[in-house]
Amino acid sequence: MVLASMISNPIKENDIPDIVEKWNKRAQLKAPAKVDKWFWVEKKQIVENKYDLSINRYKTMEYEEVVYDSPKVILAGLKKMEKEIQKDLEDLGEMIG
User: Which of 4, 17, 76, 81 is most buried (most C-beta within 10 Å)?
Assistant: First the structure.
Protein backbone atom coordinates (compact mmCIF):
# COMPACT_ATOMS: atom_id res chain seq x y z
CA MET A 1 0.00 0.00 0.00
CA VAL A 2 1.29 3.46 -0.86
CA LEU A 3 0.31 6.72 0.78
CA ALA A 4 -0.07 9.55 -1.70
CA SER A 5 -0.43 13.18 -0.81
CA MET A 6 -1.48 16.16 -2.90
CA ILE A 7 0.53 19.27 -2.22
CA SER A 8 -1.82 22.15 -2.86
CA ASN A 9 0.76 24.90 -2.42
CA PRO A 10 4.33 23.71 -1.97
CA ILE A 11 5.60 27.20 -1.13
CA LYS A 12 3.19 27.99 1.71
CA GLU A 13 2.54 24.52 3.11
CA ASN A 14 4.81 21.71 4.20
CA ASP A 15 2.87 18.45 3.97
CA ILE A 16 5.79 16.17 4.83
CA PRO A 17 5.11 16.04 8.61
CA ASP A 18 1.48 15.17 7.86
CA ILE A 19 2.54 12.45 5.41
CA VAL A 20 4.92 10.93 7.98
CA GLU A 21 2.22 11.03 10.67
CA LYS A 22 -0.33 9.34 8.40
CA TRP A 23 2.23 6.70 7.36
CA ASN A 24 3.05 5.91 10.99
CA LYS A 25 -0.67 5.57 11.77
CA ARG A 26 -1.54 3.67 8.57
CA ALA A 27 -2.68 0.60 10.49
CA GLN A 28 -5.42 2.61 12.22
CA LEU A 29 -6.44 4.66 9.17
CA LYS A 30 -9.19 3.03 7.14
CA ALA A 31 -10.00 5.54 4.43
CA PRO A 32 -9.47 9.25 3.98
CA ALA A 33 -12.28 11.73 4.47
CA LYS A 34 -13.33 13.74 1.44
CA VAL A 35 -11.57 16.82 2.81
CA ASP A 36 -8.25 15.02 3.33
CA LYS A 37 -5.38 15.74 0.98
CA TRP A 38 -4.13 12.15 1.12
CA PHE A 39 -5.42 8.81 -0.09
CA TRP A 40 -4.39 5.16 -0.25
CA VAL A 41 -3.28 3.46 -3.44
CA GLU A 42 -2.67 -0.28 -3.59
CA LYS A 43 0.61 -1.37 -5.18
CA LYS A 44 -1.38 -3.60 -7.55
CA GLN A 45 -3.16 -0.53 -8.90
CA ILE A 46 0.16 1.25 -9.50
CA VAL A 47 1.54 -1.79 -11.33
CA GLU A 48 -1.63 -2.00 -13.45
CA ASN A 49 -1.07 1.64 -14.44
CA LYS A 50 2.53 0.80 -15.47
CA TYR A 51 3.92 2.81 -12.55
CA ASP A 52 2.31 6.01 -13.84
CA LEU A 53 2.00 8.15 -10.72
CA SER A 54 -0.17 10.84 -12.30
CA ILE A 55 -2.65 11.84 -9.64
CA ASN A 56 -5.63 11.75 -11.98
CA ARG A 57 -5.07 7.98 -12.40
CA TYR A 58 -5.84 7.40 -8.72
CA LYS A 59 -8.01 10.23 -7.49
CA THR A 60 -10.90 12.10 -9.02
CA MET A 61 -10.01 15.75 -9.07
CA GLU A 62 -12.63 18.44 -8.58
CA TYR A 63 -11.96 21.52 -10.64
CA GLU A 64 -13.52 24.89 -10.13
CA GLU A 65 -14.68 26.45 -13.37
CA VAL A 66 -13.26 29.89 -13.96
CA VAL A 67 -15.25 32.25 -16.17
CA TYR A 68 -13.32 34.99 -17.87
CA ASP A 69 -14.55 38.09 -19.67
CA SER A 70 -14.58 37.94 -23.43
CA PRO A 71 -11.39 39.06 -25.21
CA LYS A 72 -13.18 42.22 -26.40
CA VAL A 73 -14.03 43.21 -22.81
CA ILE A 74 -10.47 42.48 -21.66
CA LEU A 75 -9.00 44.51 -24.53
CA ALA A 76 -11.33 47.45 -23.79
CA GLY A 77 -10.20 47.36 -20.14
CA LEU A 78 -6.56 47.33 -21.19
CA LYS A 79 -7.08 50.29 -23.51
CA LYS A 80 -8.78 52.21 -20.72
CA MET A 81 -5.91 51.47 -18.32
CA GLU A 82 -3.39 52.50 -20.99
CA LYS A 83 -5.15 55.86 -21.40
CA GLU A 84 -5.06 56.37 -17.63
CA ILE A 85 -1.35 55.52 -17.56
CA GLN A 86 -0.63 57.98 -20.39
CA LYS A 87 -2.60 60.69 -18.57
CA ASP A 88 -0.70 60.03 -15.34
CA LEU A 89 2.62 60.19 -17.21
CA GLU A 90 1.65 63.52 -18.77
CA ASP A 91 0.65 64.88 -15.35
CA LEU A 92 3.92 63.65 -13.86
CA GLY A 93 5.88 65.24 -16.71
CA GLU A 94 4.18 68.59 -16.06
CA MET A 95 4.94 68.35 -12.33
CA ILE A 96 8.65 67.84 -12.85
CA GLY A 97 8.87 70.55 -15.49
Answer: 4
